[in-house]
Every structure is written in structure tokens, then in C-alpha cells.
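Let us practice reading a record.
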Amino acid sequence: MATDAPPPEGGTASSPAQNTAAPTAQPTTAQFVEVQESTEFGELRRTYRSFAFPLTVVFIAWYLLYVLLSNYAGDFMGTKLFGNINVALVLGLAQFLTTFLIAWFYARHASRRLDPKADIIKSRMEADA
């Protein structure tokens, strides 16, 4: 629910003496809708979606492959690679590795492609408010 009302006073950890800055103007609902309908914002969404959706599909497929192999290919997953380390353990640890790699890859993508576009939109909205 959008509103033009300022945030409520109090309820923060800072004391009134620390909060001496003048309140900043907030964009109106109409301004948010206008930005949301702009081609610039549409491009930002496309950039995000073109990265996030395919990567999400790939990761879910990779996860489901692991689950299906665990359920239906027990002999393969139980194959010992060395010592007590089997295929299931290696693929399970690879799930963690891919999760961290995806998070790193997304952070890099966001800082290079999404954040600059979002900062431009944000600064324009703050200047117009």
C-alpha cells in the first residue's frame, strides 16, 4: 500500500538529538507508477529477468537431477570414488558449491549491470521528489 504520508516519528534507536537532518521529500505514488511504466525501468527488469530466470531453471534442474539420482540410481550414487567418498557425497557437496557460485555470480552481475541502472532511476526519482 503506497502513501504520501511521512514515516511515523519515534520507534527508532537513534535519539532526537542525533536525528537533526531535515526530512527528505518522498516520491508520490504517481511518480512510482510513472517510473514503473518507463522503458528504462522495463529494461532494468528485462536485464534482471534474463539473468535470474534461466539460472534459476538450471539450478532447479541440477537439484532435481541430484534428488532423482539419489532415489532411482542408488548403485551409481553409491559408487566409491576413493576411500569412503562416493558419488552421492561429491554431488551433494557440489550443490553447496553451485549455490555459492550462483550467489557470487549474481552479485557480480548486479553490481555491473543492475545497480548502475537502478542508481540512475533512484537518483532521478529523488531529484524529482
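A brief commentary: The first strand starts at residue 80 and ends at 82.
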